[in-house]
Amino acid sequence: MLCDWFRQALSKPRKLPDSAESTSRDVSQPSSRDDPPAPGLSSALSRTPPPTHVGASSSSSSSSSGRWSKDYDVCVCHSEEDLEAAQELVSYLEGSTASLRCFLQLRDATPGGAIVSELCQALSSSHCRVLLITPGFLQDPWCRYQMLQALSEAPGAEGRTIPLMLGLTSAAYPAELRFMYFVDGRGPDGGFRQVKEAVMRYLQTIS
């Protein structure tokens, strides 16, 4: 009898405690299909931020190109006796909405500088040259020198040299300029408006 009791006791399955059973169920229970998987290293690395587009570099109104490649827009070539007319023209051009930068010899030449060097520098530092052609201009050797220097850049200087005739008839127009149209200064504004428009047209071609 006692042996039968021991045999039955050993053959019965042991009942686990409730806590152990619940732990076993929790471990063996598969995760729900709706639960998102935990992000791994590869998924974290794949979430790179969107590329940032580098904007085009702003076009520099660099001083090495276009209008600002030279110090002046206009060099006014005139004789000493025509200084007053030259000053009026410069005031008109600089006071316009375009605010043209003008070289006027008496005002802008370097004190103590050599005349030839200053005249050549004024021409090379200006986009356009206005030749204030008057009786005094034709008799001034320095004015003729500037005129010939300006013409030496032809034919590539088309539109840069602008003759303005004052107090002369067309018959007195210099032979060296016969291939160029001139601005007649006998108009109500002395031809200043036409000079300004000619300068602006040239500046637009290099902008």
From TrEMBL:
Major subcellular site: cytoplasm
Region of interest (Disordered), ranges: 1-68
Places the protein is found: Cytoplasm; Cell membrane; Membrane
Assembly mode: Homodimer.
Organism field: Leptonychotes weddellii (Weddell seal)
GO molecular function terms listed in the Swiss-Prot or TrEMBL record: identical protein binding; Toll-like receptor 2 binding; Toll-like receptor 4 binding
Protein's GO biological process: inflammatory response; innate immune response; positive regulation of canonical NF-kappaB signal transduction; positive regulation of chemokine (C-X-C motif) ligand 2 production; positive regulation of tumor necrosis factor production; toll-like receptor 4 signaling pathway
Residue ranges occupied by any TIR domain in the UniProt entry: 70-199
InterPro entries: TIR_dom, Tol-interleuk_rcpt_adapt_Tirap, Toll_tir_struct_dom_sf
Keywords: Cell membrane, Cytoplasm, Immunity, Inflammatory response, Innate immunity, Membrane, Receptor
A GO-annotated cellular component: plasma membrane
Keyword Cytoplasm appears in the UniProt entry: yes
Function: Adapter involved in the TLR2 and TLR4 signaling pathways in the innate immune response.
PROSITE patterns named in the record: TIR
Residues that span the membrane, as ranges: none
Protein name: Toll/interleukin-1 receptor domain-containing adapter protein
Gene that specifies this protein: TIRAP
Compositionally biased region (Polar residues): 20-31
UniProt signal peptide: none
